[in-house]
Amino acid sequence: MRIASIVALVLIALAAVTAYLSLFTVDPTEQALVLRFGEPKQVIKTPGLHTKVPFVDNVLYFDSRVLEVDTAPQEVIASGQKRLVVDAFARYRITDPLLFYQSVTDEQNARGLFANYLESTLRGVLGASTFEAIVRDRRDELMTVIAKEMNEKTGSYGVDFLNVRIKRVDLPDANSDAIYRRMNTERQREAAEFRAEGEGASRRIRGTADREVTVLKANAQGEAERIRGDGDAKRNRIFAGAFGQDPDFFAFYRSMQAYRSALGQNDTRFLLSPDSQFFRYFGDAAGGPETPGSTNTEKQGLAPNASFAPKDTSQAGPDEGASEGGESQDGAEAGDTEASEIGGDAAGIEVPSADSVEQQQSSDAAKEDAGPANSGGTSGAEPELEAAQ
User: Fold this and answer.
1) CA 176, CA 170: separation in Å to the nearest integer?
2) Alpha carbon distance, N-terminus to C-terminus of the chain
3) Whole-angstrom Cα distance, residue 74 to residue 85?
4) 90 and 37 inside one domain
5) What is the pLDDT of residues 56-102, one digit of tens each?
6) Dist. CA 145–CA 122, nearest whole Å
7) CB within 8 A of 110, min separation 6: which ones?
8) Per-residue CA distances from 240 to 16, 87, 229, 251, 311 (Å)
9) 89 assigned to some structural domain
10) How far is CA 140 from the centre of its chain?
11) Domain residue limits at 321
12) pTM of this prediction?
């Protein structure tokens, strides 16, 4: 009985082991390939519990989900000899486990093989496209074309490439630096244009302001000249009224101003005739004012042919200034010349030359011969002038 029990237990154990080895399950995310002595026997795509021949059949599992092939960023020369760095990936699904097993054996080998196919397809398709098409215009269309070519290349591998996506398209570092420099140059050029426009606007505004300033100054100057002219006219009217009220006093006042202007400095020597109209108000030394035509030198208190060198006329009276004439230097000829017109401002006195004095004396002698009444006692002074010469 004991031997029978042991044999029964062994048979039960063998049956259990055989049953365990005869059954296998397929996950919903997987598909199976049954191999018998290394040869494909059955492809199972439905999930659940399945049977096999123990110790004879071998089951291989393949993923039924969407798988991904990712490549490293690679440099692609686009149309127009523009270099691009493209980073892309592809998605695929195993549709035929038997073909997949016969062509690439497992997913690891398939991943490396499909990555090489993807890189070559990217270079071929993108190399025939322009930079603008890759980056902006035909990007989706190009990805569809790449996926189609991948299916053509891997059609015998039992896979189906669903799509290809370009993650990133960049320029090489050298090209990026060149583009950044070009962009910087363009920005600097635009900045220079803006500065030039600003400078031009500034010059126009400054020119307009300067023109307005010039106009305002001209208007102000014109207004000032008009006001000054009105003041001068008013002053002339006042002078004319004063002259009309008392002509003698006005002539005296103007002569005093001429004396102050001409004789105010004591560093200049003058040679003048005392009977000149310029000194008609110096005649009070003889006891009363002289008429403008009087030339009596003794009455005026001046010696004939005397050189007149005024001292400080601000302290001395008219009689002292007339009597303190300087001596003539080296026989200089005395003449009669007027330093200022009667009633006008005298800015200075011109010193006559010897020839002009002699001509003036000849003219005075002719006048005395023609009319003794107008000369008033100059006949005695003329011989003395000739003796001085």
Assistant:
1) 8
2) 196
3) 5
4) no
5) 888 889 988 999 998 888 888 887 778 888 899 999 999 999 999 88
6) 10
7) 100, 104, 157, 159
8) 156, 108, 16, 12, 33
9) yes
10) 48
11) 249-388
12) 0.45
